[in-house]
Write a structure and sequence with these properties.
Layout: E1 3-6, H1 13-22, H2 31-39, E2 43-49, E3 52-61, E4 66-74, H3 83-94, E5 100-102, H4 108-115
Parallel strand pairs: 4-5
Antiparallel strand pairs: 1-2, 2-3, 3-4
Helix pairs in contact: 1-2
Length: 137
């Protein structure tokens, strides 16, 4: 297995949909919107095994102080092989001059995974959201 990593946005809607379906993420149901969203992010780094999109990380930033990692997605067939770690290393390097690199871990195993990759859990902070699924087009 020889993986390549790039910040070039060479992915297609189909590539994104297949990757996000592989991890059963809701975003896979909106391939047009998913591609458009990623195309508008400041940073997208992808991992490829030949022509197969195997992983992706993206960040939204304010240009100076804070960057938010929105997605870290790795095809289950490639999990445990260092793809996620490499994507995290690349995003951390890109934003090393920023004061904050923030992400949301959705469960205990992910909290431990991110801690193992240099992130710290922020005590007393709570994630808030507004869901607009019924308004989605």
């Amino acid at each position: 297995m020889t993986l390549t990593f790039t910040e070039e946005r060479i992915y297609t809607k189909k590539d994104l949909q297949e990757l996000f379906q592989s991890v059963n993420w809701l975003s896979a149901n909106y391939p047009d919107r998913l591609k458009k969203a990623l195309d508008h992010c400041e940073t997208v780094i992808t991992a490829w095994d030949g022509e197969l999109l195997t992983g992706l990380i993206n960040a939204i930033d304010d240009g100076e102080l804070t960057a938010y990692v929105h997605y870290l997605c790795v095809n289950p067939a490639y999990q445990g092989k260092g793809v996620g770690r490499e994507l995290l290393d690349r995003i951390k390097k890109k934003y090393q001059s920023y004061l904050y690199l923030i992400l949301i871990a959705e469960n205990e195993p992910l909290i431990e995974y991110y801690k193992g990759n240099g992130f710290q859990q922020i005590a007393g902070q709570f994630v808030m959201e507004v869901q607009n699924f019924e308004k989605s087009v």
